[in-house]
């Protein structure tokens, strides 16, 4: 089943010009640049990329063929452009006649002035062509409709009315025949579905897409710029802070593990896991920032599988929960509170270790230490305490 997309780009863009009554300014609207890409490039790309479209033929305003060729050099599935006609219908007809030399099974006819068409809309039209010889994307009219001139003559019942978009899909042979017949009797229509209806074809309606608007007026261009700018802007985020605190008692041993670094000492630290008090405080700080319980609820001390566990596993898990929410860690800050062992000589190794565990820049990690001047349980050398803070950025719309 061969499908070719015909992109009609032969218009002047008079209504899009800023000065009313002129032609489309220095260049037709389809060659205007929207956020770095021409309108026609945006309109063609989804067809070139679509797995069910075999080739794309552009019908370009006469005299603009070279400009088109330069812009699209190297696209294998793009056919040699055709010059357009005086009206949209004439341009479509020229495209169809060019294809009739080696006729495809189906044709998708799309306005170059609709740069926001997407693969799903193309897919819906193609799906409908499995059962129908014509199918068009359309959206139910949502505004109230009036007929009139200076004054309202009547309110039109909008029930059953649709605003119609492109791409419009057709079995090739009947739409070519319909266009030829319309040309013979000089009938002019505003879209190809109307040509098909006039020729007696049934035209199926499929869901259109609100973004797939035709750029017709200067206001349409302003709206398109705003839409693209909003999409390009980084998503809004909020910064959350969490705190963590942990204590482990000294017991027999010759070393302690602090922030992932083994440090020689005349005692070890008692605990169900490796008793890394620094990483535990950091884990709780991360869980606190995303309001997701604490280290005990994720890794219950009663569960034998965490016996002697490497605490890096707890920290990595908390970081993975941040990432799963689309968040990122801004910075981590931990203070180790003890008289002994001395932390200073190991501080940078600890920062590097935490950075490795989390794939973070070491500049975002602070490790500090303090004594309690001989006061309290840390002052008496009974254990080590750690307190930590974590800042994370979470996407605003996904924050609970
Ligand atoms: N002689 C024409 C007229 C229109 N089109 C194409 O048909 C699509 C829809 O037409 P429209 O938005 O009316 O474009 P213009 O004719 O360029 O606009 P205007 O009427 O404001 O000049 C556009 O991609 C346009 O380039 C065409 O191929 N050949
Ligand atoms: C083909 C079309 O885009 C479907 O909505 C529309 O009919 C083109 O109309 P225009 O008068 O050429 O703007």
UniProtKB/TrEMBL annotation:
* Binding-site positions, 4-CDP-2-C-methyl-D-erythritol 2-phosphate: 246-248, 272-273, 294-296, 370-373, 377, 380
Q: Where is this region: 2-C-methyl-D-erythritol 4-phosphate cytidylyltransferase?
A: 1-239
Against InterPro entries, the record matches this protein to: IspD, IspD/F, IspD/TarI, ISPD_synthase_CS, MECDP_synthase, MECDP_synthase_CS, MECDP_synthase_sf, Nucleotide-diphossugar_trans
Recorded E.C. number(s)? 2.7.7.60, 4.6.1.12
Q: Which GO annotations describe the biological process of this protein?
A: isopentenyl diphosphate biosynthetic process, methylerythritol 4-phosphate pathway; terpenoid biosynthetic process
Provide the 2-C-methyl-D-erythritol 2,4-cyclodiphosphate synthase domain boundaries. 240-392
Family according to the record: Belongs to the IspD/TarI cytidylyltransferase family. IspD subfamily.
Task: Outline what the protein does.
Answer: Bifunctional enzyme that catalyzes the formation of 4-diphosphocytidyl-2-C-methyl-D-erythritol from CTP and 2-C-methyl-D-erythritol 4-phosphate (MEP) (IspD), and catalyzes the conversion of 4-diphosphocytidyl-2-C-methyl-D-erythritol 2-phosphate (CDP-ME2P) to 2-C-methyl-D-erythritol 2,4-cyclodiphosphate (ME-CPP) with a corresponding release of cytidine 5-monophosphate (CMP) (IspF).
Q: What is the designated name of this protein?
A: Bifunctional enzyme IspD/IspF
Q: Which gene encodes it?
A: ispDF
